[in-house]
Amino acid sequence: QVQLVESGGGLVQTGGSLRLSCAASGSIFRFNVMGWYRQAPGKQRELVADITSLGSTNYAGSVKGRFTISRDNPKNTVYLQMNSLQPEDTAVYYCKLRSLSVDYWGQGTQVTVSS
Length: 115
Fold this sequence. Notes:
This protein is mostly beta strands. It has strands at about 1-5, 10-15, 20-25, 30-40, 45-50, 55-60, 65-70, 75-80, 90-100, 100-105, 110-115. Strands 2, 4, 5, 6, 9, 10 and 11 form a seven-stranded mixed sheet that branches. The chain has a four-stranded antiparallel sheet with strand order 1-3-8-7, with no helix packed on it. About 30% of the residues are buried.
């Protein structure tokens, strides 16, 4: 059983910053991928960024240069530093862990950027 607990969402003004955290617990294979997805109202869930346990990263084009994903392997925790936030970044942000070809999701955290 794997559990993901997210934190760090909230309300911020345009141009502001937020940092999301996601801590995973349970039976987790050493080599895995952790990432952040987001879903805005009326839209499909989309990848924001992900990072392998070896540190390789992947970003959506819309967030490159503004968001940074990182992880702490001993703590099974992934972070998303979000800078220069824009209203179009408003969404529910979900953490995902892929371990042994199984996907686990967090409950989601709301990020709202006011204009």
